[in-house]
Amino acid sequence: MVRTEELLLNVGPQHPSTHGVFRVVVKLDGEVITEATPVMGYLHRGTEKLAEDLTYTQIIPYTDRMDYVSAMTNNYVLVNAVEKLMQIEIPERAQFLRLIVMELQRIASHMVWWGTYLLDIGAMSPFLFAFRDREQIINLFNELSGARLTYNYMRVGGVKWDAPDGWIDKVRRFVSYMKEKLEEYHALVSGNEIFLSRIKGVGKYSAQDAIDFGLSGANLRCTGVKRDLRKDEPYCIYDRFEFDVPVGTNGDCYDRYMVRLEEMRQSLRILEQAVEQFPEGGEIMGKVSRVIRPPAGEIYAAIESPRGEIGCYIVSNGKDKPYRLKFRRPSFVNLQILPKLLVGETMTNLVTILGSIDIVVGEVDC
Amino acid sequence: MGDLLHENLSWRLVGIFSFWAAVMMVIVLVFVTYAIYFERKVIGWMQARKGPNRVGPLGLLQTVADVLKLLIKEDTIPKKADRPFFILAPVIVFVPSFAVIATIPFAENLYHASLNVGMLYYAALSSISTIGIVLGGWASNNKYALLGGMRSAAQMISYEIPLVISVVGVIMMTGTLNLHTIASAQAGGFWHWNFLPQIVGFIVFIIAAVSELNRTPFDLPEAESELVAGYHVEYSGFRFAFFMLAEYVYVFAIASLATVLFLGGWDAPLPFLNFIPGIVWFILKFASFVFFLFWIRATFPRIRIDQLMGLGWKVLLPLALINIVITAVYMEIAK
Amino acid sequence: MSEDNRNPEANKPPVGNESAKAEDKAEVSAVANAGAEIGAKPVPEPERGTPAQQRADQAAELQSADKAHKTTGEPSDAPAAERKGTDGEAKDELKDAKAKAAAEARARAAAARAKKAQEEAAAPKPPSPKQPLLDRLVQLIKTRVAQDAVEEAYINEANDHLPTVVIKNEHWLACAKMLKSDEQLQLNYLRNVAGVDYETHMETVYHLQSLATSENFCFKVRTDRNRPSVASVTSVWATANWNEREIYDLLGIDFPGHPDLRRILMPDDWVGHPLRKDYVPIDPEV
């Protein structure tokens, strides 16, 4: 007797396209997915539990390793929450340094996303171009903080290291270089017919779905909802700079792609302005005691990381270690919509859709 | 060579044929070695990096090192794999790739056999490789491999048809399936070459050829990022080397075929350049076709399986058929 | 409760080698401790026991604690102290003068702070700008859900005056539905769901926002520790799905009504809930 069965396929945890140690169990009917269940936890390192035994400054390196592609914003979310709780004032120069590194980090993170997304889709060359440009940013960070990936740069009250001489000029040069390159990448990839046919109309969801699932970042903006925490709940000194928030219309992979590329352009704009307004001298660390003891209370502070809204919920009982520290990780929340999007898609589109959500598994698992 | 084929078969002839076959094999293997090397170099340069440059002077021995590595690896056969088929699949893929080279004329007097059904021989043998791929995918006892094998079968069958039909225009114009005759008929400068009157056929041929070779943008069967190497995921060591070898020998075969059918074979582009031997022209045209294949690989993303099928059946096949009709009409009028 | 402990010394470029600097600090701290007590006397003495005095006391205590912390933390201190005797006497005098100046500066700062704290304690706090919002919300919940649904309602000042409401466990699902559907509130964006293990009870905390009005709210639901259970709001906000799974996984709070409550981060066969305060890991020696 001839009988057709559904095929149960494990995509991952070792797979070139799952962006980390992450598994999707798919039920296939031929090439069409009937059900997909993400399984995560392979990279769970217990950061939140560890944080209960560490002082706030000691937690900062742990935040680096959560979303390792965009470590500066992770640093910031923690120190921002603590600073708000303690109502510390941050000096100008530190604010500017923080803003500059966060925007550079945004560009670096989007470059990684761009290169790997195109590699998943099959184009090999943009991956190398993306990493070549990201290398420049990494070198800037290396000069600044001594590390290439996990910087441990920010502290409660300011930043740890000051910009060396000539660093700001290097940033300025990088901004003009990157502007040209971005145009080049648009010309190279964004109009390619094969590429467009692969991502237009794929992985579509409505704004209502996006809001229901709590998506954030480019995943929410691609549906037309204009929400960017840098504008809606300004933190750091973002309210001093002019920039636009790109918004898509259809909510498909193409819109997410264009929104992220446009975000890079806006980041370059912010960087240009920040580099012009960079203060000459000044402190890089505010008035903070050696032992950081926030008053008893709780706070939820969120910022816009390249992946979406990253938030830090701290419950403090007056000691120097948090009573409860919870990170609201954007990749974790954004990934929830994946099972819904995958039903009825082919295997090939699984990779396309997963790449467009832009997750980092270190953040999914925390 | 042609005269030898008319003699009666004797041990001496067997010896001569085997010798020339071995020579051809060596040439093809050298080609494969340096095609792989150049592919990596060319793609590297297009990606703003140098390709291999450490092993040997300028990295020239890179492929030798790679092949040596593959040959000395452990021969793993998965426990539940279908052993006889698992072992047979690479062989079935490789043998036709080498066998088709027999009919290709490299120069006026450099060929192995001048078959009157040369083109048909080529098309028939190259289809057998598909069986090997499906067999490899099945015998591996791995769902990814199976998916890859199925995809590959679908793809190759869909693109065999436009490939062969696009050539029908050339056959109609020349009036024969004999590859040597087709090449000679294009003598006298590049305006006689078939790619000009048969431009539609040429384009269809190129696209179908890239698909037949399982190269980007049609490399779904081995899409690393989706199916983790597709049908040859369970193969390692020299069996994997066989699959890779087969792919590059097919590159050789199709590039030669394209040169013979559409680019004039050994003909010089301008008649006064005839003093340069024909084989040099053949090599130049052949090399530019191969470079074109590398160039596409570095540039394009991958097409999706359903779009691939759509392209093959709904675009290339009708174009090839239209090409035949137009050629027929033109030939009637030109009479 | 921030304290200014930057030595004037620390900001100057390093004179000589590091051990000399450490030695300076050690010396200064020893002298300054004495100096602080002496220096504090000229300040008009506020009554003992007022928050201001307690804070000044605590500041001094912290200072000494910090110095102690600093001296024990730096390994170069012990040999530096020994090396002190071999340096010239002139250096000691200079150091003494510096130390005195530092101590006086610190005493002045402490006095100024004590005064300010006293003033602050005297004046009443202004009402929060979000208070009317909170009142309206409480009223809405009382009328639409249940009269006794609200356990507590307060403003979290540090968190940008976030209105925080504690809802009774049994009314949570109804309240959540109301919050989403009500036209005035329209809380359609669930930003964060967190579980907290207070040793006496457990809490789930929901941070909600209305995308239309950009108003933020925080809701808490308490549950007892032995069989913690909070109604699942996955049917109201789909975001809650995995968040509740994570809380279940790590804290053990059950969410009746959840479509698929199973472990998400820990392996499926894990025993225990790691984030609980009384969690004992399998291998505590590690």
pLDDT average of chain C, as an integer? 72
Helix content of chain C: 40-55%
Kindly name the structural category of chain A.
alpha+beta
- Ends distance of chain C: 36 Å
Number of strands of chain A: 8
**Which parts of chain C are unreliable, with pLDDT below 50 for 5 consecutive residues or more?**
1-54, 56-86
Count of alpha/pi helices of chain A: 15
Provide the spatial order of strands within the biggest beta sheet of chain A: 1-2-3
Helix % of chain A is 40-55%
Order of helices and strands of chain C: HHHHHHEEHEEEH
CA radius of gyration of chain A is: 21 Å
Assign an overall shape of chain C.
Answer: flat
Oligomeric state as shown: heterotrimer
- Say how many strands of chain C there are: 5
Average pLDDT of chain A works out at 90
Q: The biggest beta sheet of chain C, please?
A: 5 strands, mixed
Report on the structure:
The complex is a heterotrimer of chains A (366), B (335) and C (286). With 366 residues, chain A is an alpha+beta fold. Chain A contains 15 helices and eight strands. In chain A, α4 runs antiparallel to α11, α4 packs antiparallel against α14 and α6 runs antiparallel to α11. The two termini of chain B are 36 Å apart. The mean pLDDT of chain B is 87. Helices cover 45% and strands 14% of the residues of chain C. Chain C contains eight helices and five strands, in the order ααααααββαβββα. In chain C, strands 1-2-5-4-3 form a five-stranded mixed beta sheet, covered by helices on one side. The longest helix of chain C is centred in the middle third of the chain and has 34 residues. Chain C starts with 7 loop residues before the first helix and ends in a 35-residue tail after the last helix. Chains in contact: A-B, A-C. Chains A and B meet through α4, α5, α7 and α14 of A and α6, α9, α11 and α12 of B.
Question: How is this fold's topology laid out?
Answer:
The complex is a heterotrimer of chains A (366), B (335) and C (286).
Chain A: E1 7-11, E2 23-29, E3 32-39, H1 47-51, H2 56-64, H3 71-86, H4 92-121, H5 125-145, E4 154-155, E5 158-159, H6 167-190, H7 193-199, H8 207-212, H9 218-221, H10 229-232, H11 253-276, E6 297-305, E7 308-316, E8 324-328, H12 330-334, H13 338-342, H14 347-357, H15 361-365
Helix pairs in contact in A: 2-3, 3-4, 4-5, 4-11, 4-14, 5-6, 6-11
Chain B: H1 2-6, H2 11-46, H3 62-71, H4 83-99, H5 118-139, H6 143-174, H7 179-184, H8 199-212, H9 224-227, H10 238-262, H11 278-299, H12 305-334
Helix pairs in contact in B: 2-10, 2-11, 4-5, 4-10, 5-6, 6-8, 6-12, 8-12, 10-11
Chain C: H1 8-11, H2 18-40, H3 51-73, H4 77-84, H5 89-122, H6 131-144, E1 150-156, E2 162-167, H7 172-181, E3 189-198, E4 201-209, E5 216-224, H8 240-251
Parallel strand pairs in C: 2-5
Antiparallel strand pairs in C: 1-2, 3-4, 4-5
Helix pairs in contact in C: 2-3, 2-4, 2-5, 3-5
